[in-house]
Design goal:
Elements: E1 2-6, H1 10-21, E2 25-29, H2 32-40, E3 44-48, E4 53-56, E5 60-62, E6 75-80, H3 91-97, E7 98-106, E8 125-130, E9 135-138, E10 142-145, E11 152-154, H4 157-168, E12 174-176, H5 180-199, H6 203-207, H7 210-230, H8 245-249, H9 253-259, H10 273-279, H11 290-300, H12 305-319
Parallel strand pairs: 1-2, 1-6, 2-5, 3-10, 6-7, 7-8, 11-12
Antiparallel strand pairs: 3-4, 8-11, 9-10
Bound molecules: NADPH dihydro-nicotinamide-adenine-dinucleotide phosphate (NDP) and ketopantoate.
Function: Catalyzes the NADPH-dependent reduction of ketopantoate into pantoic acid.
Domain Ketopantoate reductase N-terminal: 3-155
Family: Belongs to the ketopantoate reductase family.
């Protein structure tokens, strides 16, 4: 099975590293800066908050697929690990590097990016996947996992084979046939992405402040109300049921620290991917996350003023670029 990671940045390199260490053949399609970093450091180094540290070199690193006629139709599986707003324009590139029986797996947070491309690729096996944990790019080609969780993939024969390879290597991987609860449940957690960017604190520190947790709890309540109106069950990624999260987050500090010990058992360096975008002066994914709460809320007649205000705040930060 030939695998490509299209748009290998933080999560893409982490996924590539795990797949390579599991004995799979992996090619990265990435920016020149990422390629140089990986070559200079003799591979991708995966590290995590529990002390894991291993370096591995992918089979190939490609920065321009139009220059590589040898890759036409080559990949059996392509993981797309671009940011949401980068997905809609790559249909032709995906067609060039895959064949009729390839699986293309979209790993974006939020809502809207999958819909922006799926009609252009309707003859392929299109799947979705989730990265439930945080990945931070550190110097020297290190990709650092800061929170718990394993890659979660939509079920088909390719992803089942990938799951067994990852599990054999001790990485774990979850498979789900129905991905709707996975996507809706992940969005609940991603409501913290923008707030983490706004507070400009590591997630652990951010969540130790009552006021920060209250805003997150209000944003989550809105999404839970939308999901209830839409009659969608949310997948549970945390130890706590999704519907209990706003209540737990609203506890006073002393009680929160007791009850939500595991929620705070994360790397003190972990920050959201939106914080990384704001710091790098990149466009954020706020329209696909808090913006999706607002637009899906409108469909079901649920008011979402907190998420609307968060979208506005992030737009202002983006304009400072
Ligand atoms: N980072 C995290 O901790 C987590 C992220 N996620 C989600 O995963 C998805 C991916 O996020 P993340 O990995 O952080 O994103 P990154 O921005 O780190 O990675 C995407 C990479 O693709 C590059 N790229 C863009 N267009 C092309 C192209 N045409 N060809 C080759 N490379 C290209 C980007 O370069 P450039 O920047 O120059 O455009 C960037 O290096 C997002 O939806 C995010 O929300 C989910 C969980 C955790
Ligand atoms: C892991 C999590 C929820 C928060 O870091 C995330 O998805 C992100 O940063 O985009």
């Amino acid at each position: 099975m030939e695998i490509a990671i299209f748009g290998a940045g933080s999560t893409g390199c982490y996924l590539a590293g795990q797949l390579c260490l599991s004995g799979l053949k992996v090619t990265l399609i990435c920016r020149p800066a990422i390629k140089q970093k990986i070559i200079a450091n003799n591979g991708i180094t995966l590290s995590d908050y529990q002390g894991f540290n291993q370096t591995v070199m992918p089979q190939a690193l490609i920065t321009d697929i139009t220059q590589q006629s040898s890759i036409n139709g080559k990949f059996d599986v392509v993981f797309v690990t671009l940011k949401c707003h980068q997905v809609s324009t790559i249909a032709n590139q995906l067609m060039a590097i895959t064949h009729d029986h390839s699986s293309i797996i979209f790993m974006q947070n939020g809502f809207g990016s999958f819909d922006s491309i799926k009609d252009s690729l309707d003859h392929y096996a299109l799947l979705q996947g989730i990265t439930p944990f945080n990945v931070l790019q550190l110097p020297n080609g290190v990709f650092h996992k800061g929170t718990e969780g394993v890659f979660t993939l939509q079920k088909n024969p390719h992803t089942v084979a990938i799951q067994s390879a990852l599990i054999c290597q001790g990485f774990g991987c979850d498979i789900a046939a129905d991905f709707t609860p996975m996507i809706y449940g992940k969005l609940l957690l991603n409501l913290n992405n923008a707030l983490n960017a706004v507070t400009n604190l590591p997630i652990k520190q951010q969540l130790s402040h009552y006021k920060n947790r209250r805003v997150l709890a209000k944003a989550m309540k809105e999404w839970l109300a939308v999901c209830e109106a839409a009659d969608i069950q949310l997948h549970q990624y945390t130890k706590v049921k999704p519907t209990w999260l706003p209540t737990i987050l609203s506890l006073p500090n002393w009680l929160f620290k007791l009850v939500a010990k595991q929620m705070l058992d994360i790397d003190p360096k972990a920050r959201s991917s939106m914080w990384q975008d704001i710091q790098a002066k990149r466009k954020t994914e706020v329209d696909f996350i808090n913006g999706a709460v607002v637009s899906i809320g409108e469909i079901y007649g649920v008011k979402t003023p907190v998420n609307r205000a968060i979208v506005e705040h992030i737009k202002q930060l983006e304009q400072r670029h």
